[in-house]
Design brief:
Layout: H1 4-20, H2 25-34, H3 41-49, H4 56-66, H5 80-120
Length: 124
């Protein structure tokens, strides 16, 4: 059996936490499937052994199944500056969308007016 330092931080966490949750690898596979994530038992064993690295989504789902945060994952409070910048971008996108709609309405009116004047003009 591998020592925790041989598994790496994520592998050691995954192995230890699964053991503490009293789950088999197969039970974890089933629970991940309920979350819409198909994974093989061999993949989970590889993660626990340190030979495979889980992607962000798989790591998040494993953490949900175990009810435990993986090592090195920090959940910082949202940055107020970032939130402000996002809100400004959303406002700009909304304004640009309204400008686009106004331009399309103007174009539609111009085409309709051109068609109407053509319909009333004598044919050559």
């Amino acid at each position: 059996m591998k020592r925790p330092e041989e598994r790496g931080p994520v592998g050691a966490w995954a192995y230890r936490t699964r053991q503490e949750a009293d789950l088999t690898v197969e039970q974890v596979v089933e629970r991940l499937a309920v979350h819409g994530y198909a994974v093989k038992a061999s993949t989970l064993r590889g993660i626990e052994g340190g030979s495979k690295k889980p992607g962000a989504r798989l790591l998040r789902l494993i953490a949900e199944v175990y009810g435990s945060e993986p090592p090195g994952v920090a959940h910082a409070a949202p940055d107020a500056t970032l939130i402000g910048a996002i809100n400004e971008l959303v406002a700009e996108l909304r304004a640009a969308r309204e400008e686009q709609r106004a331009w399309e309405r103007g174009l539609t009116r111009a085409v309709q007016a051109a068609l109407a004047s053509r319909a009333g003009a004598p044919s050559s």
